[in-house]
Task: structure prediction
Amino acid sequence: MTKPVIIALDFASAYEVNDFLQVFIEEPDLWIKVGMELFYGEGPQFITRLHRKGFHIFLDLKLYDIPHTVLQAMKQIGRLGVELTTVTGLGGQSMIEAAKSGLLTGAQESGQNVPKLLAITQLTSITEKIMHETLHNDQETLVESVTHLAQLAAAGGADGVISSAWESQAIHEATSSDFLTITPGIRLTNDKNDDQARVVSPDQAIKLGSNGIVVGRSITQATDPLKAYHQVKALFERGS
Ligand code: C5P
Result:
């Protein structure tokens, strides 16, 4: 997988997505992320339609449940033709193993490629202070927590994690250089941070060792989304 710029399609309906994607028709190898809002609104059939149109799809549903339930859900996801998908890393190693096994079975049964499995570490909206308050424990730094979850995910057979690019290097050192760190929380210099806390620019992200960036509002809410996409891509690819 070359290092992708993945556009987060955080829209409510297929109508809005189709309208947004019109200006991207000529773009080769476009990566898109479908999250909970769109998936719950339009369902798995919409994913199949996007797959048939040739998009590279990251289905980000952050599964978190007991291993058996996650295995069964991942079988369904394995049938959709997506290339990346997520579980919540806090579900533990056996849940991650179950997720991987479900994806393998679903993909094999339907003749699809097996989607890469990514575990969410600490959300990019979380600061160390919020993490300490949430866990009611201040013994661990945020980077320690993220790298620990990454090691657990690697041991469970995940292909990588979602983290901030700030943690990419530490994750690669704690796991391996080919363990993926896909990084949201990306903003261009003049953009608002919104609800994101651990924010990085596209050129910083590549220098910090990110294997791919997820960009939502900096592209989707831009006055000229295609221009913003090209700007992000150029910064990420050349690192300056
Ligand atoms: O608009 P923005 O660029 O902040 O969107 C980031 C996208 O990445 C959202 O779709 C969000 O759900 C997702 N994401 C994230 N942090 C994570 C995991 C996923 O921001 N840790």
Observations:
- The chain has a mean pLDDT of 97.
